[in-house]
Specification:
By secondary structure, the chain is an alpha/beta fold. Helix content is 38%, strand content 15%. The structure holds ligand KE4.
């Protein structure tokens, strides 16, 4: 069933660290060899052994319209005819900036980069330069990419592999990152009070997706905004995963809380490498070449990714999110019904098309401590059963499903049928 993938993994491990270009792809925490895919179309993925899968990962978020979306592909093909990159300004960069600013009102100016990590790294450098303060507050279980300042109690691949604090991050860097507990405003205020006038910014995943999906409790985000004002530091929303995914305007639109800086990625590249960060003019103007805070990138704003990105963003209308909600709600409700009917100790957290099934005895998962008590071994068994039945899930309990608009009713029926069988088996 997976013969060629196993062979390919043997080869890649000799040439690429861990055989993969991003750790979570190695399937380490689900205890099996990774699948090598060779094509995707719509809601389907096809591996090198010819197996077909219904994709519930969407490349960790970018593919909101599914694989090889015709509009996205043709926009890239058209741009390709004019070359791949110029390393100089192009009109399409202005257009996508305009589009992002229109969709996310808290952003008055935006800088394009090439990954979510670049966006978050640059955002905290800007916050530190603008406020002339050094400390940042992040939350345990939140993942903001692999920038040194963030690999402290980090989520996603770091928590998946049991490496929330990475070697190579110096003590001097680590001491400038303070750790608060998600959904716990007191833990934030204590740090702010103790480090008065030293905190440049609070950075948060306003909906956390890297310890599995964890939602902010009522008034948590508003409370953070108030604390950032009270203690005169910036509030950064890391919407790399949630931006343009949970709604047109992201989490900040749903919860009506305006951050000072927003980081973006994934969906805005339509599957090509793109990140972005933006915010108030007064802050963004601190960036070179006008301001003193330096940040640069050879391929930032490259025309292929910009064309793909703007094509996707322009398609994101109310009808799209209504349809995505219907698809996601149907899957979620079906899974909850199966959990009940199979008497499984599990709960589901969902917002829009982002969802995590947690194997836990708890009735709620609200933070990192709750999440790390989940039964990751049970998740691994569940993952493998679903894979064998042709359903591709995130290979970690600490990640999210990302549903795409390409999922059909028959896909949903297959997902729910496989889910029930897998729950009965584990
Ligand atoms: P990238 O550098 O991987 O493009 O983005 C980093 C990042 C920043 N902020 C948030 C909230 C993120 O979720 C991410 C990356 N997301 C993970 C999936 N949970 C990427 C998957 C991977 O590491 O391969």
């Amino acid at each position: 069933m997976y013969k060629k993938s196993i062979q390919e993994f043997r080869k890649s491990k000799k040439l690429i660290p861990g055989g993969v270009n991003s750790p979570v792809r190695a399937f380490k925490s689900v205890g099996c060899d990774p699948i090598f895919f060779e094509k995707g179309k719509g809601s389907k993925l096809f591996d090198v052994d010819g197996n077909e899968y219904i994709d519930c990962v969407s490349s960790w978020g970018p593919l909101i319209f599914g694989h090889a979306d015709s509009d996205t592909v043709s926009s890239i093909q058209k741009a390709l005819k004019f070359g791949t990159t110029y390393g100089a300004p192009t009109v399409i960069e202005t257009k996508i900036a305009e589009q992002i600013i229109k969709m996310v009102p808290s952003i008055e100016k935006v800088r394009m980069v090439n990954s979510g990590t670049e966006a978050t790294m640059s955002a905290i450098r800007l916050a530190r330069g603008y406020t002339k303060k050094n400390l940042i507050i992040k939350f345990s279980g939140n993942y903001h990419g692999h920038g040194d300042s963030f690999l402290i109690k980090a989520g996603s691949g770091a928590i998946t592999l049991g490496l929330p604090d990475s070697p190579g991050v110096t003590k001097n860097i680590a001491r400038d990152t303070l750790i608060a507990s998600y959904n716990n405003l007191n833990s934030v205020e204590k740090l702010l009070f103790k480090n008065k006038n030293k905190v440049a910014a609070i950075i948060i995943e306003p909906v956390a997706g890297n310890m599995g999906l964890v939602l902010p409790k009522k008034n948590f985000l508003k409370g953070l905004k108030n604390l950032s004002k009270k203690y005169n530091c910036l509030l950064i929303f890391d919407e790399v995963m949630t931006g343009f995914r949970v709604s047109k305007g992201g989490v900040q639109e749903i919860y009506d809380v305006e951050p000072d800086i927003t980081t973006l990625g994934k969906v805005i590249g339509g599957g090509l490498p793109v990140g972005a960060y933006g915010g108030k003019k007064e802050i963004m103007n601190y960036l070179a070449p006008d301001g003193p805070v330096y940040q640069a990138g050879t391929l930032s704003g490259n025309p292929l990714a910009m064309n793909a990105g703007i094509t996707v963003l322009k398609k994101l209308n109310a009808g799209v999110f209504k349809k995505l909600e219907m698809i996601s709600k149907k899957i979620c409700n079906g899974i909850i019904k199966n959990i009940e009917e199979t008497n499984t100790n599990a709960i589901v957290n969902r917002i829009g098309s982002m969802m995590t099934l947690f194997f836990t005895d708890k009735s709620e998962i609200n933070n990192y401590d709750d999440a790390v008590e989940c039964d990751v071994k049970k998740y691994a068994k569940y993952f493998k059963h679903m894979l064998d039945m042709g359903i591709y899930l995130p290979p970690s309990q600490y990640e999210c499903c990302f549903f795409s608009l390409a999922l059909s009713d028959s896909d949903i029926t297959k997902i729910l049928r496989a889910n029930k069988t897998a729950l009965q088996k584990i």
